[in-house]
Amino acid sequence: MTRWLHPLRHHWRGDLPILWTLAGPIAGVTLLTLWLARSVPSATPLRWVVFAALAVVLFWQVIGTARASRLTLRSGADRPLGVLGYGAAGLVLALGLVMLVEIGTPPAPPPPPGTAGHASVTRTGATLHLQGEIELRSYYALERALTRPPAITRLTLDSPGGAVHAARGIARLVREAGLDTHVTGRCHSACPLILIAGRNRSADPAARIGFHSYATPGYANTGPLVLDDAAASQRRDAAAFRAQGVSEAFIARMFDAAHDTLWLPDHATLRASGVLTR
Question: Residue 167 above 90 pLDDT?
C-alpha cells in the first residue's frame, strides 16, 4: 500500500519531473475524472461522494503541478515547460471547478409530461421517452442522455409538435445513434421529423401521426434572430422523408393540410407509404 502512495506523495511535493507531472497527474488523471463525472447519474446521492473525491483530486493536481512548475523555473532547466505547467494547472483548475458546479447543482424537477409548452425527456433502461412540446431543451436533454450508459436503442414519442429546427436536431441524433422510434400517443407537426429518422419505426394501435403545412409562405420568424422560408423548409424536410424510403405519393400530400389543421392518415396508409416500418 505504501508503495502506491509514493507517486502521490511525490506529486504533492512537486518532486516529479515536470514532463511526468503533465503526462500523469494532469493529462491522465483529468481524463479519468472526466469519465467518472460523466458516468455517475446526477440524480443519485452518489454524486456527493464523487463531488468530494473530485474536489480532493483537483486540489492535489493543482498544488502538485504548481510546485513542480516552480521548482522547474527555479532550476532554469526548462523554463518553457515550467510555464506550461502553470498554464496546465490553471486549465485543470477551471475545468475541475466547472465539473464540481455541474455535479453539485441539484437537477431541476422535470415538468409534467406532455404539458403544453414543456418538454420531458426520461429514460427506462435502453429506451428514451420524449413527451411534450419539442424545443431546444429537448434536443440538449436527449444529447446528454445519449452520452450516458447504458446505450440507448429506442426513442418513444408523444408530442404535439414544436420547433422545427429542434426537431431536425433531434432527428440527426436519432440517425447518428441508429435508434428505433415508436409513437405512444400523438406525433404531430414537427414530431414526424423525429419519427422518420428512426431505423425501425412503429406506433401503438391508438397512436395518431399528424401532418400539416408550415406556418406561412415566404419568410417567418421561428425564434430569436431566426428567419425561415416555410416553402424551402418543407422541401428540405420532404427530402428527409424521401431518404427514408417514403413514397412520393405520400410526400406530395404531406404538407397539404393548412397549418391550423391536421392530416391524420391511418396506420395502414403509414405502413404502405413507408412512414412506419412495423
Answer: yes
Four-point Cα dihedral 156, 161, 211, 245, nearest 10 = -40
List the grid coordinates of 225.
434572430
Question: In residues, how long is the chain?
Answer: 278
Average pLDDT rounded to a whole number, residues 142-146: 91
Reading the block at residue 150, the C-alpha cell is 447504458
DSSP 3-state percent helix, strand, coil across the chain (nearest 5)? 55, 15, 30
Enclosing domain of residue 171: 119-273
Q: CA-CA distance, 209 to 201, in Å (whole number)?
A: 12
160: helix, coil or strand? coil
Span 47-55, average pLDDT: 77
Distances (CA, A) of 242 to 52, 206, 231, 237, 273: 52, 26, 16, 9, 11
The CATH number of the domain holding residue 148 is 3.90.226.10
What lies within 8 Å, CB to CB, of 56 at 6+ separation is: none
Indicate whether 217 belongs to any domain: yes
Cβ-contact 155, 180 below 8 angstroms? yes
Regarding whether 99 and 129 lie in a shared domain, the answer is no
